[in-house]
Design goal:
6-stranded parallel beta sheet; 6 strands
Amino acid sequence: MQPRPSSYSAFVFDAYGTLFDVHAAVRRHAAKIGPDGQLLSEIWRAKQLEYSWTRTLMGAYLDFWQLTEQALDFALLKVPSVDPAFRASLLDAYWNLDCYPEIPAVLKELKAHGGRVAILSNGSPSMLEAAVRSAGLDLVIDDIFSVDQVRRFKTDPSVYDLVTTAWRLYPDKISFQSSNRWDAAGAKKFGFRTVWVNRTGQPDEYPDFAPDLILTSLEGLAARSL
């Protein structure tokens, strides 16, 4: 396949919820955890994000792994039907989250057409490197950008600027993909072309920062971008 010019110079992906299934850690132990596993997972994720926003506003940074631990501790207290003895197993599973099934083929197609591919995530560098290796994406990801470099979480503009500064690109040359509507809004405000991956059929919000494209999965991204 011969590379051909792309409408965008680079494709940057959020990690958690976009490339990697954040509920895979609980699902892996679902049979033992019991019927409240999904509730536990949803609270865990919600608190993980809440802590990132709160700490950015306070100027009290902790890396994302510490927030992930704290969020799970809260979730276990909130859902007492789940045995706290699962804590270590759930945290261990978070280092090896499943990627969504279409991801390897999508990234390879972008690369085949000369696209530059990166991750821009709240995750700590060690978390992201482990997830990329576990999913076998290390050969198609060009760069991993972590908020740890600026010690602030999305949607702070300094996070999105990590990519434009490192790659010396104007924001409008970058296509940014996220399953998190608030993240897509932040990236749109910064100037990226934004793709909202609405995997779970959520209602739209932030109408003044509308995404340029809405997909139900990343399948078809190349066809809509190249």
